[in-house]
Amino acid sequence: MKKLYTLLAAAFMAVTASAQDVDLYLVGAFNNWNNGDPTYMFTNKGEGVYEITVDDLLSQFKVTDGDWVAPYNMGGDGSGVVLGTPAQLVEDTNSNLFFADYDGVLNAFVTVNLNDNTITVSGEGYTAEKVWYIQGVNGDWATWSTDNQFTKNSDNGCYEISEFLFSAAGEFKLATESWVNEYGSGAETSAIAFGNFSTQLYVSGGNVEYSILGTFGIRFNPETEVIEFVQGGLGGVNEITVDLNNAADAIYYNLQGVRVDNPTNGVYIRQQNGSAVKVLVK
What we know:
Elements: H1 2-20, E1 25-28, E2 43-46, E3 49-58, E4 61-64, E5 73-74, E6 87-88, E7 104-113, E8 118-126, E9 132-135, E10 151-152, E11 159-166, E12 170-176, E13 182-184, E14 198-200, E15 202-203, E16 208-210, E17 214-221, E18 226-231, E19 251-253, E20 259-260, E21 266-272, E22 275-281
Antiparallel strand pairs: 1-4, 2-3, 3-7, 4-5, 6-8, 7-8, 9-12, 10-11, 11-17, 12-13, 12-16, 13-15, 14-18, 17-18, 19-20, 19-21, 21-22
């Protein structure tokens, strides 16, 4: 029996040593998510401790073995990394690590300890003015388009898109370019639908479902982290007198995005000559 215990202990120690000899990489917005980049491979200090220094470590990053598979696809638990304080690493997760108080850290010294699965970052934290986009709408996750860019309203501090045409149901997130910062779904998030035009967002959350169609204004409050959709848009209606007899090439949609072949008095979206505008038909 003693021999069996000795063999089991030896096997356990061998597995542990093997696990702690793995090559680890830092990957994130700072290197355009180039996983396995040898420039950002940790130095193995032995006994499960790894270290690396990064000149400018942007928020949103992960620790991997150069692949996206378990167990070394390691991210955060959603609480945010505080400088100088060990943060818990979560194995095989879609959630990224992010800084609780900063957009990035200069001269970041990063330590990973596989004995307790923690990561510690020290350095000079900084914040920057953010440019937010809504991503994933109408099925487009690949393109960064200025059509999806928010403008900051200096009067209320909110980020706004005055008008956006939702043509297909789907999912979305808010993000800055290269996903340095992002907001998505969490515990109190509900799907955006007719009858529910606002919801709570969470840092580095999941995708938010929506089923609204038509033209909406979008307003995001960074203080409350609530996003709101305003049917018809945030601005006033462009009151244009439309001569339907001389607009044979124009196509009209109601505010729900449904084509209307014979518009009567009311507000519509007119598409003509490659552009769309909200009009009041009299």
